[in-house]
Amino acid sequence: MPEVNPAYFLCYEAAAAELPYDPLQVLPGIKVQQITDFRHFCKALLQQPSPTVRWVLWLDAQGLGIREVAASPPGPVRVDLLDTRMQWRLHHGGVRSELLARACGLHRQTQDRPVSICDATTGWATDAALLAWHGAEVWLCERSPLMRLLLADGFRRASQHDSWKTWGERLHWVGQEACAWLNAQPEKNVDIVYLDPMFPERQKKARVKKEMIVLQHMLADEFMPANESELLQAAFRAAAKKIVVKRPKSAPFLTNLPPDQQIEGQSARFDIYLPSLQRINC
Fold first, then answer.
1. Which of 44, 68, 92 is the last residue of a domain?
2. If exposure means fewest CB atoms within 10 Å of the residue's CB, which of 43, 94, 152, 223 is most exposed?
3. Which DSSP state fits 49?
């Protein structure tokens, strides 16, 4: 059973005519509460002397999401691989114009031999979706039990659409933490391991997408920082061709290990490590 911060609630919508899950079976051990007025629920929590609940797992007729506890709470954030923004990016971003696709060499893959990739830090799965759209076979790992629930629900909703079958079947949901999965595979079992670890905190204020804010707070509340050395070692063991690491443009190298190649964008870069050249002692 996954460990969950005891400050979390699962709140479900009382007005929903039909829920896709039994609220009591979504995540054993989490506190469950039926909600008629979420704003009133937030107000009661915020009036407590030392409020500890910042986010709740939200269940309604659409499925699962995360909602912020706030005086004027926004709607739930969900894994939605078929939303308008994602669809625009998939249809308008070519394999050569997408830096991640280029870093993974997808412009060189052939139809009879697609590139195999482990997305070791899946998050909201937008990068994994992009890679699958451009022809790669992608295995998705995620360390957060709550994020895994959101991902599984997002896959459930997406699979109900006909458009999903053209590329979504190239996404393979592992449903466990990356180090455990990578170390359980035969050596050099995938072509590429892709890592997008939590970005270091920026020194300057910047507008950050709501999804990233939710993910940063959710994982910070729930876990200690990831063991980047352990993750990188597992990636070197599993990857046959390369490890691709996404970083902010000015951030230090992951575990201070200089890459063999780099592809830079306006705000981020992709550090590329070649297992055939690297000798690491993280």
1. 68
2. 94
3. S
Residues in CB range of 267: below 8 A, 6 or more apart: 248, 249
> For 219-247, b where at least 16 C-beta lie within 10 A, e where not — what string?
beebeeebebeebbbbbbbbbebbbbbbb
Number of domains in the chain: 2
Q: Which residues contact 122 (CB under 8 A, 6 or more apart)?
A: 128, 140, 141, 142, 147, 151
Asked if 177 and 140 touch (Cβ cutoff 8 Å), the reply is: no
CA dihedral 95, 100, 104, 110 (to 10 degrees): -20
Say if residue 124 is in the same domain as residue 252.
yes
Pair 257, 273: CB distance under 8 Å? yes
Same domain as 63, residue 181: no
**Contact in structure between 45 and 70 (CB atoms under 8 Å):** no
Checking if the pLDDT of 6 tops 50, the result is no
Nearest to 43 by CA among 14, 66, 71: 71
Tokens of 100: 């991640």
The reported pTM is 0.86
For 121-274, where are the alpha helices, taking DSSP H only? 126-133, 145-158, 178-184, 210-222, 228-238
**Dist. CA 103–CA 120, nearest whole Å:** 16
Structure tokens at 274: 């070649």
Residue 148's domain comprises 84-273
The 10 Å Cβ neighbour count of residue 191 is 21
Condensed to tens digits (0 to 9), the pLDDT of residues 33-87 reads: 999 999 999 999 899 887 778 889 999 999 999 998 999 999 999 999 888 777 7
Q: How far is CA 251 from the centre of its chain?
A: 20
